[in-house]
Amino acid sequence: MKKSKSLLLLFALVLVIGTVLAGCGGGNNATTNTGNTAGNTPAATDGSASGEKLAADQTLKINLMSEPPTFDPALANDSQANTVLKTMYEGLTRMNDETGQAEPGIAATWDLSADGLVYTFHLRDAKWSNGDAVVAGDFVRAWKRVLDPAAAEPAPYSYQLYYLKNAQEYNEKKVTDFNQVGVKAVDDKTLEVTLKAPTPYFLGLLSFYTYYPVHKSVEGNAKWAASKDTMIVDGPFTLTEWTTGQSIQVSKNENYWDKDSIKLSKIDFSLVNSSATELSAYESGQLDYSGLPTGEIPTEQLPIVQQKYPDEFQRKGIASVYYYEFNVTEKPFDNVKIRKALAMTIDRQTLIDKVTLGGQLPAFGFVPPGIAGANGEYRTAIKDSYFTEDDAQAKTLLEEGLKEEGLTKLPTFTLSYNTSEGHKKIALAIADMWKKALGVDVKLENQEWAVFIENRQHQNFQVARAGWTADYNDPMTFLDMWVTKGGNNDTGYANPAYDKLIADVKATDDAAVRQEKFAAAEKMIIQDDMILIPLYYYSNNSLTKPYLKGVTLDFSGGIDLTRAYLLEH
């Protein structure tokens, strides 16, 4: 994501209007389509802007490049699941992507103690899709599932609940009584949450899917999230059709407390992992939206569609990073010099100019622009200059690393990526750069999304493609994932010094101290240990039909379809 100053101005504006946004994985020099948000004009009684007329058929058609691996909020950890779960569930808060602020969700109001540690949430009269009342105990149940140390499948995002008093201790079996964890149902309408330290972005975190409630029917049914018939939800839409590998359909939930704000009757998600097919479907009118974060426009078509559809094309800089990660537990990638050599021989600007074509910014750190720091933007204060592209130095490092490993040549290794023409083109280009600069041979391996995620989580890879989007607007969302045995730490990295830095940050609300330790932590994983190769900071490139309104993207690139609507066309 390098390009013009306009991107930095965009990010600065995001920081001015928004402090915390939930998300959970470029240059703004193109025409911005302000027509796909509904907040700038007075609303008519039908939910559209004044003078607009709604289409009779309120079925939104959109594509998902990959099928979500799960619809269980406790187990989800990818952007595709985030998109669909956001339509079906609602947490204590929800994020207003236009204002950048957490606003009431299932919690109508809340109180905060003077020391910033105890939140008391007062729940509204909300119902589950089967008509049952949403009660405080539904949140307690959900959070206990996430933290359950005996869970058959550990929740990858359990650490997101470590802000609660004794949550980490319970998850690590140091505390055995869940009643000691800082969440309590005072009564059906009152939830008390006690934190271990003041957390300024906590209200935003509560809109994230790991904090969603779950219905009591999940108890004793390990497969409840595998069928539409057992999916009882509390959000704007319910899961009504699901044909594995082909399509997903959600329909308006008439029991949703704010149903009058929902204009769509259905959202039809096709499941097609061909960007060319997706673009063709958009151009023929079979899709109302195309591109990130749900799908993909072919990279070679980006300059063309930008010219062809100037009023429909949108490019937005987002706080997300594209990177390759190493399995640092496996030879020869347990050698940091070898890892550094590979990182230093990638020409990022050429990759962007010749391959991705999306106005991204070259990345030399892990925390992207747009993330708040102690005073303004973190990336402005802490430059991402942890390493440079230098083929000569990389060759020296590789030779030294190979000698340390008793090798004369780097063995052929496998670079894994999930199914996508874009990921494939990037992998081919980088493999070619490595071959020319270092003489190394790389085997490319394409994997279906669910298999790819599972292999990464179990460190069944050597080098793998990855991407990360912000779950909230703080550097922590990019840095606490790399702690030892972290649920999203797929690299196997384990460094007590790093763990202490992150723990120290979580124990203080001093902005200057937090930023200093964040910078030290980022330096450790990039400059010192190079557990991953940052490639670029994302831009979100998409096409939106002129008649589709109310779709919003948050600063991290997360999409919210729940308040969308279709005009006559």
Automatic annotation (TrEMBL):
Gene3D superfamilies the UniProt entry points to: Dipeptide-binding Protein, Domain 1, Dipeptide-binding Protein, Domain 3, Periplasmic binding protein-like II
Superkingdom in the source lineage: Bacteria
Annotated PANTHER family: DIPEPTIDE-BINDING PROTEIN DPPE (PTHR30290:SF79), PERIPLASMIC BINDING COMPONENT OF ABC TRANSPORTER (PTHR30290)
InterPro entries on file: Peptide/Ni-bd (IPR030678), SBP_5 (IPR039424), SBP_5_dom (IPR000914)
GO BP annotations listed: peptide transport
Entry keywords, A to Z: Peptide transport, Protein transport, Signal, Transport
GO MF annotation, one: peptide transmembrane transporter activity
Family the entry assigns: Belongs to the bacterial solute-binding protein 5 family.
UniProt-annotated location(s): Cell envelope
The name this protein goes by in its record: Oligopeptide-binding protein oppA
Compositionally biased spans, kind Low complexity: 30-45
Region feature (Disordered): 30-49
Signal sequence coordinates: 1-22
GO cellular component, one term: outer membrane-bounded periplasmic space
Origin species: Paenibacillus sabinae T27
SUPFAM superfamilies in UniProt: Periplasmic binding protein-like II
Domain Solute-binding protein family: 103-489
Pfam name, any one: SBP_bac_5
